[in-house]
UniProtKB/TrEMBL annotation:
The keyword Manganese applies. The gene is Dpm1. Transmembrane segments: none annotated. Pathway: Protein modification; protein glycosylation. It comes from Donacobius atricapilla. InterPro entries: DPM1-like, Glyco_trans_2-like, Nucleotide-diphossugar_trans. Keywords: Endoplasmic reticulum, Glycosyltransferase, Magnesium, Manganese, Metal-binding, Transferase. One of its GO terms (cellular component) is endoplasmic reticulum membrane. One of its GO terms (biological process) is protein O-linked glycosylation via mannose. It catalyses: a di-trans,poly-cis-dolichyl phosphate + GDP-alpha-D-mannose = a di-trans,poly-cis-dolichyl beta-D-mannosyl phosphate + GDP. Transfers mannose from GDP-mannose to dolichol monophosphate to form dolichol phosphate mannose (Dol-P-Man) which is the mannosyl donor in pathways leading to N-glycosylation, glycosyl phosphatidylinositol membrane anchoring, and O-mannosylation of proteins; catalytic subunit of the dolichol-phosphate mannose (DPM) synthase complex. It is an enzyme of class 2 (transferase). This is Dolichol-phosphate mannosyltransferase subunit 1.
């Protein structure tokens, strides 16, 4: 109400034991089912599967994808909306590596992995965006639907492919600096297998775009 944005929240739980479902039920009681939409347990890795489920129930013209563990502050909704209106962008991507953006709470290893992944992507793909692995994004709904038809990647490389395909299709991408704060509870799913999968996906995109 105070942001001036007419919005709905769609919560897609990946079956994690962190109490997401219970919190969603409490939010639904407070704000009503017209604002909070709970949709099943989809046992998935952070990839397009969640986007597909979310799009089925989204009624607005724009869709914002964000982490539900408070790593992305809710004020970013207002920032991304303002940026979209400013340039009439098809996509607004949060960036941790531009302007006053940053990362808080990561150890050196995690920072090096993220920086290294973005550096390799910049060198090989020239995507025209500074943060390819972040998951805070605003999309026009019809643009997201078109991108989902083109993207084939799974896991962490999926976020990168979305921007690369968007550039291929001529969609406009704006960036807004964000502060990413590591989760207080739970652990990241990032491991050796995901890193290998990311590198394979990066090389595939390099060979096919």
């Amino acid at each position: 109400r105070f942001s001036g944005i007419d919005f709905e929240i769609i919560i897609i739980d990946d079956g994690s034991p962190d109490g997401t479902q219970e919190v969603a039920r409490q939010l639904e009681k407070i704000y009503g089912s017209d604002k909070i939409v709970k949709r099943g347990q989809f046992f998935l890795f952070p990839s397009g599967t969640a986007y597909i489920h979310g799009m089925k129930y989204a009624t607005g013209n724009f869709i914002v994808i964000m982490d539900a563990d408070l790593s992305h502050h809710v004020r970013l909704l207002v920032l991304s909306s303002g940026k979209q209106k400013e340039g009439n962008f098809d996509i607004v991507s949060g960036t941790r590596y531009k302007g006053n953006g940053g990362v808080y709470g990561w150890d050196l290893k995690r920072k090096l992995i993220s920086r290294g992944a973005n550096f390799l992507t910049q060198v090989l793909l020239r995507p025209g965006a500074s943060d390819l692995t972040g998951s805070f994004r605003l999309y026009r709904k019809e643009v997201l639907e078109k991108l989902m038809e083109k993207c084939v990647s799974k896991g962490y490389v999926f976020q990168m492919e979305m921007i690369v395909r968007a550039r291929q299709l001529g969609f406009t991408v704006g960036e807004v600096p964000i502060s990413f704060v590591d989760r207080v509870y739970g652990e990241s799913k990032l491991g050796g297998n995901e890193i290998v999968s990311f590198l394979k996906g990066l090389l595939t995109l390099f060979a096919t775009t």
